[in-house]
From TrEMBL:
This is ABC transporter substrate-binding protein. Residues 39-290 form the Periplasmic binding protein domain. It is found in: Cell envelope. Keywords: Signal. InterPro entries: Peripla_BP_I (IPR028082), SBP_2_dom (IPR025997). GO terms for cellular component: cell envelope.
C-alpha cells in the first residue's frame, strides 16, 4: 500500500496544493469595488488634542471614499468604556475595526473577539498585546522608540553638549507609546556621558499632572536643564511649572500638533526647544481599508511606520506657516 503525501504551501496570496495554484480568501468576503462599508473607530480619549487631530484626519480621509461610513466611539480614557464600545462594533458587524487602545493589556481580549468574528483590526498609534499580522491585522503608527531616541540624541548633541541634568515626563505607563518613548529618550542621551537623567515621572499624558510632577522635580533637582515630555500636553504643563519656579528649562515635546495651542507654535515662539511630530496614520489607515474592502486584498502589510519630523528653532516658523 502506497501512501501519497501532498505539500501545502502558503506564499503571499497564493495557496499551492500539489502544484495547483488557488487564490487566497480575501480578508473580508463581502468586499466589492462598489460596496458600502462601515468602519468603526474606537478612540482612546477624545479629550486629548492629539486624539481629536486623529479623528479630524480620519474623517477627512474617509469622506474621500464614497462607499465608506466612519463611526467614531470615544473611549473617554476608560478601558471598560472602550471595551464595551468595541463589543458594540462587533455586534453591529462593522466591516473593519480601527482602534487606538487606551491601555494595551485590558483591550487585548476585545481585539481578539473582533478578529474571531472575522473583522479585520487595524491598530493606530498604540498596540494591544500580541503581534501584528497574527493577533490583529495591522499596526499603523510612528516608531515611538525611534522618535524619542532622536529627541535624546538632540539633547546629547545640541541642547546639552557640555552635559547636565535632564528629566522625563512619561505618559500612561500601561500604554505602549509611553514605555517606548521613555526608553528611547534614555538610550538617546547615553551618547553624551556627561548627561544625567535625574528624574522620571509618569504624568499620564495630562498637563495638570505634568505641571505638578515637574514642579516637584525642580524642587528636588533645581539644576535640571532639559525636560523631555512624551507628548505636547505634558510639555505645556512642564512650561508652566518651570515659569512658576523661575527656571529656564529647555523643553522637548512629542506630537508636533498644529494650531495656536500646539507644539509647533510653542517652538516657533521660543517657549520650547523642540517637538517631534507624530503623524496620525489616518490616511494610511483609510488606504489600507480600501485595499481590504474595495480591492479584496487577502493580506496587507502588518506594520506601516509613518515618518516623523523634528521641529526646532530652525524650521518651526516655516512649519507653523509664519
Amino acid at each position: 500500500m502506497k501512501t501519497i503525501f501532498r505539500s501545502v504551501l502558503l506564499a503571499g496570496s497564493c495557496l499551492c496544493v500539489a502544484g495547483t495554484a488557488y487564490a487566497a480568501e480575501p480578508l473580508v468576503k463581502a468586499c466589492a469595488k462598489d460596496g458600502q462599508f462601515i468602519i468603526g473607530f474606537s478612540q482612546a480619549n477624545n479629550a486629548e488634542p492629539y486624539r481629536q487631530h486623529v479623528n479630524d484626519e480620519l474623517t477627512a480621509a474617509a469622506k474621500e471614499v464614497p462607499g465608506f461610513t466612519l463611526q467614531i466611539a470615544d473611549g473617554a480614557g476608560n478601558v471598560n468604556t472602550q471595551t464595551s464600545q468595541v463589543d458594540n462594533f462587533i455586534t453591529q458587524k462593522v466591516d473593519i475595526l480601527l482602534i487606538s487602545p487606551f491601555e494595551a493589556a485590558p483591550l487585548t481580549p476585545a481585539v481578539k473577539r473582533a478578529m474571531d468574528a472575522g473583522i479585520p483590526v487595524i491598530e493606530l498609534d498604540r498596540k494591544t498585546v500580541g503581534d501584528p499580522g497574527k493577533d490583529y491585522t495591522a499596526f499603523i503608527g510612528g516608531d515611538n522608540y525611534k522618535i524619542a531616541l532622536e529627541a535624546g540624541k538632540y539633547t546629547a548633541k545640541t541642547l546639552l553638549p557640555e552635559g547636565g541634568e535632564a528629566a522625563v515626563l512619561e505618559g500612561l505607563p500601561s500604554s505602549t507609546p509611553a514605555v517606548e518613548r521613555l526608553n528611547g529618550f534614555k538610550d538617546g542621551v547615553k551618547e553624551n556621558a556627561k548627561i544625567q537623567v535625574v528624574a522620571e515621572q509618569a504624568a499620564d499624558w495630562v498637563p495638570d499632572k505634568a505641571q505638578t510632577a515637574f514642579s516637584a522635580m525642580l524642587q528636588a533637582h533645581p539644576d535640571i536643564k532639559v525636560l523631555y515630555a512624551s507628548n505636547d500636553m505634558m510639555a505645556a504643563g512642564a512650561l508652566l511649572a518651570a515659569k512658576g519656579a523661575g527656571k529656564q528649562v529647555k523643553i522637548i515635546g512629542t506630537d508636533g500638533l498644529p494650531g495656536p495651542a500646539g507644539g509647533i507654535e510653542a517652538v516657533a515662539k521660543g517657549d520650547w526647544a523642540a517637538t517631534f511630530t507624530y503623524p496620525t496614520g489616518a490616511k494610511e489607515a483609510i488606504e489600507m481599508s480600501k485595499k481590504i474592502l474595495l480591492d479584496c486584498a487577502s493580506s496587507v502589510d502588518p506594520t506601516v511606520t509613518v515618518d516623523t519630523t523634528a521641529i526646532t528653532a530652525e524650521n518651526a516658523k516655516q512649519m507653523s506657516g509664519k
